[in-house]
Write a structure and sequence with these properties.
This protein is of the alpha+beta class. 32% of the residues lie in helices and 32% in strands. The chain has a single domain (2-177), classed as Alpha-D-Glucose-1,6-Bisphosphate, Chain A, domain 4, CATH 3.30.530. It contains 4 helices and 7 strands, in the order αβαββββββαα. Strand 4 (89-99) and strand 5 (103-110) form a beta hairpin.
Length: 179
């Protein structure tokens, strides 16, 4: 029920961003079960400094702002990333919602996408495991050319980024115990 409501809200928000246009809104959804309790999983994901640990090194991800130990609604995070052709880009995201320890959302304020809305869900599975689900809605830049870029470069790269994260989290106990 909660996820479908959030998607409905997303649709209305995107319609306000691009009224009377036929801008495609792409969705990426990934799920993974990791072998750590919910409290440890939340502690890891809610510390924004840990994002670098699960981002492919080739992206040259660098945090550029002072950060607290844990996220909160309204937190702005500035970083640089090199997604394509070795060109570094500034990306500014805002944490727009937090429901500790089950959910948070980040939205791009400045960056490579026209729209980026990323929901993170955490659900306990017994006492020692957590289901992690990501739901991303995005609109590429460059209007109609963005649809072609999505097929040729953006979607495949997002797949690689989330594959890398999944791989890093397979050893979640080791990764998270050092967070």
């Amino acid at each position: 029920m909660g996820a479908s409501w959030r998607m409905t809200q997303m649709s209305r928000r995107h319609q306000r961003l691009a009224p009377n246009t036929r801008v495609p809104i792409y969705t990426l959804e990934r799920s993974q079960v990791i072998d750590v309790p919910l409290v440890d999983c939340w502690r890891f994901f809610s510390d924004p400094r840990n994002l670098q640990k699960i981002t492919p090194p080739a992206l040259r991800f660098r945090i550029k702002s002072e950060l607290p130990d844990t996220i909160h609604a309204g937190l702005m995070i500035r970083y640089s990333v090199t997604p394509l052709a070795g060109i570094p880009l500034t990306w500014l995201t805002e944490i727009t919602g937090v429901d500790k320890p089950n959910y948070f959302v980040d939205e791009q304020r400045i960056g490579p996408y026209r729209v980026w809305h990323h929901e993170h869900f955490f659900t306990p599975i017994g006492a020692e495991r957590t289901a992690v689900r990501d739901l991303v809605h995005y609109v590429p830049p460059f209007g109609p050319l963005g649809a072609l870029l999505n097929v040729l470069a953006i979607r495949p790269q997002l797949g690689r980024i989330f594959d890398y994260r999944d791989q890093q989290l397979r050893n979640a106990r080791e990764l998270i115990s050092f967070a």
